[in-house]
Amino acid sequence: MRLVRYRHGDEVRRGRLLEDGSVVELRADGSDSGTVAPMEELDLLPPCEPTKLIIVAHNYAEHCRETGSAPPSAPHLHPIPASCVVPHGAAIVLPQGIGRADHEAELVVVIGRPCKGVSAEDATRYIAGYTCGNDVSARDVQWATPPAFARGKSIDTFAPLGPCLATHLDPSDLAVECRVSGDVRQSGRTSDMIFSVEELVAESSRWMTLLPGDCIFTGTPPGISPLKPGDVCEVYVEGIGILRNPVVEG
Fold first, then answer.
1. Residue 176 and residue 235: Cα distance in Å, rounded?
2. Nearest to residue 149, comparing CAs of 165, 161, 135?
3. What is the DSSP string of 61-73?
4. Closest by alpha carbon to 132, among 23, 243, 3?
């Protein structure tokens, strides 16, 4: 099932995304209400409400090579604030003087219940589902001296999420792509990840309590490139859909 959150007047409602791109509104008990609307006509919200995001660096060997980094022996985890999250359709705003800002297409794990010190074997019990994420990264900030990895990824609007939360999805071998104004820039599969979804949940929960709605960005395949005002950036994850955001100058 693929679930969306959206605003209707002063209310936040939930719906089920259908194969034709329309959304059927869900009642409080989870049943279909029968009210259907095209997704693009809805005021979409992020599919979850995280208290924090955990960015996993260098989780694809080819991405390590393109950045000149050695593949890690343990997951590199970088918590950042959730204030940088925006939904499908919202603009990625490049602040004045930010320098190079790259797209990073990622499968995102969404936590479903409080999670601390869990094993990889038990990790799936704590996962609500998966969504698409774009870990936009300000390289001039991230690679500054001294480096400021988290700061370069924490800028407002730099963490688009959506369009939906896919439940009951096997994350082990999904296509992940990034398209910029129709041009395919990144293409990989989650089977290429160095550390699996289960290992990332376990390692994250070793250090911090994960709360419902918290997100783990699982790393990006190779092909990172700069974004510029006027671009339209799309992140596609198989079984979830397309997260689309225009890029504007701040």
1. 7
2. 135
3. HHHHHHHT-PPPS
4. 243
DSSP β-ladder status, 159-166 and 175-180: unpaired
CB within 8 Å of 33: residues ≥ 6 apart:
24, 25, 26, 27
Give the total number of structural domains in the chain.
2
> In one letter, which amino acid is 161?
L
Residue 108 and residue 48 in contact, taking contact as beta carbons nearer than 8 Å: no
Q: Domain residues for 222?
A: 46-249
Residue 67: predicted pLDDT: 87
Strand partners, 236: 177, 242
d(CA 4, CA 24): 10
**Residue 163: is the preceding peptide bond cis (ω within 30°)?**
yes
Residues of the chain with pLDDT under 50: none
Measured CA distances, 114 to 61, 79, 214 (Å) = 31, 17, 9
- The verdict on 51 and 21 lying in the same domain is no
Domain match, 53 and 16 both: no
| 41 and 51 within one domain | no
Instruction: Please report the pLDDT score of residue 70 as a whole number.
Output: 87
Report d(CA 211, CA 126) in Å as an integer.
10
Residue 207, domain CATH = 3.90.850.10
Residues 73 and 189 in one domain: yes
**Which residues, including other chains, have CB under 8 Å from residue 76's CB and lie 6 or more apart?**
56, 57, 58, 59
Does 164 lie in the same domain as 129? yes
Neighbours of 244 (CB within 10 A): 20
